[in-house]
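quick one, 262 residues, struct below
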Amino acid sequence: ICPPGFILDGTGSCLFAEKNISLEYFNALLNSKVASILLEYISPTVSFEVGHIKKIPLKIANTTTHEAISAEATKYSKEDWDASEESWDFTKSPFIKSYPDGNLISQAWQENNETTNRNINNLALLETKNNALFIDEYGLQDELSPSVPEDQITLTRPDREKDCQRLMSYAIGCMMGRYSLDEPGLIYAHAGNVGFDPTRYTQFPADADGILPLTETHWFPDDTAARVREFVRAVWGPDTLEENLAWLAESLGQKTGETPDE
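---
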């Protein structure tokens, strides 16, 4: 399902709905086991052309149910994608959205972990239900099982190290003024400070010169390690600062004998 602002090309074809059949219905069909098995016979290669998709037989039934499943499944997938900085609709790190001053990063990660696993389970149930409906409608009960292995659910899995790397990426984005703790989404993406407004960064100021030294020792008062410390303090408060830095350093691969700052 493509939102406004995207176009198709030769290697990324799009389907357009006609008459009384919605895109959500086609989305449900093309993400079902029925479509997968049919396409294996129609085009046993690595790609599908327009003609292959047109050959899938349509047996229209329960369109309202399929549309509802498609809409809910799309919601889970979009929420997962929007948690990534690559998404146009990215707002903030998922660790920060729901956690006021004084909490622990470990608690934020655990809560996000539970939410992610719950979404994976919910999406698996939706896909299984969608498969069961199409299998029944096409009379393929003796040929296909509706169940969906968990590893085929494409939502991002919780990973403490990678998740903390993403948190650091967002933190550096805040340091560079790309993001702000005061406002959601992209704040600044220009060069040379053209149009830059420092008043949009009150909770955590953007770096004054846009230079973030990364050195083996603490040579600069505004180096990356020092600014990470400021960021963690700004988000989770001073009372848990040392505990949060220790957990964060451990997550990122702290070596024996290293301090969290190191």
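DSSP finds eight helices and no strands in the chain.
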